[in-house]
Amino acid sequence: MAALAQTIISGCVGAGSNRELQKALSALCMICCFVVGVECLCFNGSCQARSSSCLEEGNCGSGFQCQQCPARGILAPRCTRIRPTNPLSHVKSLPFNRYTWLTTHNSYAVQGMKDVGGVPRLSPSNQQDSILGQLQNGVRGLMLDMYDFEDDIWLCHSYGGHCHNFTAYQRAIDVLIEIRDFMRSNPEEIITLFIEDYVKVPQGLSRLFFEAGLNEFWFPVTRMPKYGVGDWPTVSNMIKRNQRLVVFTSKMNKEDSEGIAYQWTYVVENQYGDEGMRKGVCHNRQESYPMMVSLSLILMNHFPSLADYTGSCQHNSAELMQMMRTCYEAASSRVPNFIAVDFYKRSDGGGAPEAVDQANRQHLCRCWDAAHCKVLSLLPTRTISYNLHGIFP
Question: How high is the pLDDT of residue 347?
């Protein structure tokens, strides 16, 4: 078995000589694409040609959406992916930091939400659907900006550390209850929250999570890698203990005062906004250690300073894939664990879901190419197990 394992891994990274084995494994992943001889996008066994045209949603399979991308000069509607492959449906035996998760920037800032107090909202929106819709489509990282507002804690897309009725979106507890209900209904899913924290009320955040009932899923700081270095527990262990909610705050003092992890002790993160989208450059944001520092988790931002619905289909396509490779090199050949974008459904084909799948392939067998990546589970003990169904098509 060890010899077979090494053969498959060698073939995966292009160094092996067992061509028949590699060919057999490749066929299992994207057989429909090999049959029709075109480049395909696949999700859970449903495949579409990358240029597959459509007239309405019903023309596309599960995990796809019919849309245009005028920013890329694509005016004819085509089927595009809106969901990544869930890596936990294939392997749960790896440490949490050996997976990549689709993450939404300003997850709460949803188009079409009702104004607060009848005052028109001036803040731009960054997503198309509700947080529940995002979770149902495989988003597992949520970026939430929390503020004191109207004697409560609200989600606001604001400025200057203060929330206003023209920048407010909704009460934080309402969103947290949605997350709680999703986690109760999906007992093997793990969710990570990145809180841009402007809450000044003492114990405000910890009380909020308790009132929302999310304490039942809380992953404690004491189980995180000391100083942010080293492996996390395996996801199977997190699921078994029901410690499936990982929460980070931007306020350092709250790790001691409220037991909420300070984000940049555990996460290196690239620059956000226009500066973070410069081609060929992936440097850290001011609060983060440099990308090359070996903290256990990596967050990759890829969205402009001003939300751009029309341009997002271009930002979330080839540009996103290129930036992922750039950040991979900047982080000493380490794959991002969280890929954060605006309008995650928008792309010219595979988009953010395909980027997440590529990253998970790299975690598992050091391949970017689906046709060469069939190893199911590479355990921390270096024991390898196989399942010949093919993963991350």
Answer: 95
Confidence of residue 351 (pLDDT cuts 50, 70, 90): very high
For residue 49, name the pLDDT band (cuts at 50, 70, 90). Answer: low
> How many C-beta atoms lie closer than 10 Å to residue 106's C-beta?
23
Query: Domains of the chain: which residue ranges?
Result: 83-364
Q: Which residues lie closer than 8 Å to 16 by C-beta, 6 or more apart?
A: 7, 8, 9, 10, 22
Question: Rounded CA gap, 99 and 358, in Å?
Answer: 11
pLDDT in tens, 312-323: 999 999 999 999
Instruction: Provide, rounded to the nearest whole percent, the portion of the chain with pLDDT above 70.
Output: 80
| CA-based end-to-end distance of the chain | 25
The encoded tokens of residue 35 equal 């049959």
Residue at 5: amino acid letter? A
In the numeric block, which tokens belong to residue 315? 């930002």
Question: In the 8-state DSSP scheme, what is residue 127?
Answer: B
Q: Does domain 83-364 have CATH number 3.20.20.190?
A: yes
Name residue 249's beta-bridge partners: 195, 262
